[in-house]
Amino acid sequence: MSEPPRKRMVRPPTGGDPSGRATPARLKTAKSRTASSQAWLERQINDPFAAEARALGYRSRAAFKLSEIDDRFGLIRRGSRIVDLGCAPGGWIQVALERRAASVVGVDLLPVDPLPPAVILQGDFTDPTMGPRLLEALGGAPDLVLSDMAPNTTGHRQTDHLRIVALIEVAADFAAASLRPGGSFVAKAFQGGETGQALETLKRRFSVVRNVKPKASRSESSEVYIVATGYKGAGG
């Protein structure tokens, strides 16, 4: 998102610096906040994607991640059936509905405010009963399985990587068991994680597998998305 050209000023605006750039906004008080929550709030205030998400009515800036991925790969088509794993707060569901998906079903551990006509289930996707419930609500084999799931972090790098890989694998297994031939799969991952084996499995199941870092993913984050297209079917 490009910004309009800045006008040259004789003096910087109040709160600016000598170059004429406005300094990042800072919260006036942080008495009851931890340092991490203070930093998160300041990022949100100064984040252009978060600001645009609010302006457009998206529930999260993550909507722009899926929009960019879909613009590039054409995953969401009119009439598509889509499953969204880890769907809270609903930004990806909003994008799928905007792009004329016919049936969208999401699931998350957290409660999610309704987004009709999408069906949203609250529960643990790793529960063996959840997969059949999602497919029943969807009304047929999905064309696209999305996973923005991420584990609660422990602060131990290796443990956290193993947890995200486990979520990728369980989401990929669900996709392989349910997608229609030619379907697609998108999952959150992290650079430097132990994803090699998961990627090899996906390459056997899909025609093309790529790692993509959308512009809406913060530059300091190691977050990437695995985009697998051309599902080969159960015999692939």
Concise account of the structure shown:
This protein is of the alpha/beta class and 236 residues long. It is 35% helix and 18% strand. The chain has a seven-stranded mixed sheet with strand order 3-2-1-4-5-7-6, with helices on both faces.
Secondary structure: elements and pairs:
Blueprint: H1 35-46, H2 48-56, H3 62-73, E1 81-85, H4 91-98, E2 103-108, E3 119-122, H5 130-138, E4 144-147, H6 157-178, E5 184-190, H7 196-205, E6 206-212, E7 223-231
Parallel strand pairs: 1-2, 1-4, 2-3, 4-5
Antiparallel strand pairs: 5-7, 6-7
How many strand units? 7
Order of helices and strands: HHHEHEEHEHEHEE
> Describe the biggest sheet?
7 strands, mixed
Total domains: 1
In the CATH hierarchy, the architecture is 3-Layer(aba) Sandwich
Assign the structural class, choosing from mainly alpha, mainly beta, alpha/beta, alpha+beta, or little secondary structure: alpha/beta
Q: Low-confidence spans: pLDDT under 50, at least 5 residues?
A: 1-27
What does this structure look like?
- The protein is an alpha/beta fold.
- The chain has one domain: Vaccinia Virus protein VP39 (Rossmann fold, 3-Layer(aba) Sandwich), CATH 3.40.50.
- Helix content is 35%, strand content 18%.
- The protein is built from 7 helices and 7 strands, in the order H-H-H-E-H-E-E-H-E-H-E-H-E-E.
- A 7-stranded mixed β-sheet has the order 3-2-1-4-5-7-6, with helices on both faces.
- The N terminus is likely disordered.
